[in-house]
Inverse folding.
């Protein structure tokens, strides 16, 4: 018998739920939710009925249900379903729309299915952060960018008009990050420091620097982590010194930027100092 996994996590920082279904065969009858659902198919082939339309869903397809959208679905390939989604209550969605677009509005997202959408990768990354309990503002940054794209491209909400690009405020944020990288930094702190909404800060920073605020912070932390590893500090202590949320997060980000794990990188400097080292590492 196929093992089914059904998990739900509530993220108090983002005020939303993250659902995960693995190995599901269940057929869901026609029903609706009183909240927004943004999900994607990890694996499986599913027949979806929504608003008198039929959709064939496959891996990488994103589905969006507005509150009270009636829908039903069932497996059609004889296999199982792996699915992840986030659920956002209307009052919370209203807050995010206010943050992003500056209007008090509940959007209607269309279409119901985004086939082979690039957003599936962002959704998966966000879902993993929530499931693993990450406390860094990376997850809030990712959520705001995700919602901004959906609001701009797939909703009935008009895109916000151009606004002044705050160069001096962005410079202030960079200087703050460089001076306080070893501390816990929140998006709320950066927003207050710049005098900008969180979304305006994210958009302006990314446009001017070519990198998001969290990626800028993480890069600064990784650069300092390299120096500590070169000096022989154990990776677990380096993660703490550079204020990553946990060692796993530190290791994953380090490998993403450097191409080696912290332990593999540190191994290069074990055999002595003062001379260039060359170490072959099997990954």
């Amino acid at each position: 018998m196929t093992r089914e996994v059904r998990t739900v996590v509530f993220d108090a920082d983002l005020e939303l739920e993250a659902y995960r279904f693995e190995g599901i065969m269940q057929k869901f009858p026609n029903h609706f939710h009183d909240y927004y659902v943004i999900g994607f198919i990890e694996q499986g082939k599913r027949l979806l009925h929504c608003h008198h339309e039929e959709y064939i869903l496959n891996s990488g397809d994103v589905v969006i249900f507005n509150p009270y959208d009636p829908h039903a679905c069932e497996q059609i390939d004889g296999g199982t379903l792996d699915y992840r989604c986030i659920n956002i209550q209307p009052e919370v969605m209203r807050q995010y729309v206010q943050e992003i677009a500056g209007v008090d509005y509940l959007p209607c997202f269309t279409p119901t299915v985004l086939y082979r959408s690039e957003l599936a990768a962002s959704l998966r990354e966000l879902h993993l952060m929530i499931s693993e309990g990450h406390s860094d503002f990376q997850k809030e940054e990712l959520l705001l960018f995700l919602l901004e794209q959906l609001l701009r491209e797939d909703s009935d909400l008009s895109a916000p008009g151009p606004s002044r690009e705050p160069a001096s405020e962005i410079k202030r944020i960079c200087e703050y990050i460089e001076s306080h990288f070893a501390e816990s930094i929140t998006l709320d702190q950066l927003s207050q420091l710049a005098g900008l909404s969180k979304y305006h800060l994210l958009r302006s920073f990314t446009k001017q620097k070519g990198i998001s605020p969290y990626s800028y912070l993480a890069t600064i932390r990784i650069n300092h982590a390299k120096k500590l590893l070169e000096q022989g500090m154990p990776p677990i202590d380096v993660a703490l010194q550079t204020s990553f949320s946990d060692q796993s997060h530190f290791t994953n980000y380090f490998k993403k930027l450097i191409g080696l794990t912290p332990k593999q990188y540190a191994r290069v400097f074990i055999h002595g100092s003062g001379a260039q080292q060359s170490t072959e590492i099997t990954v």
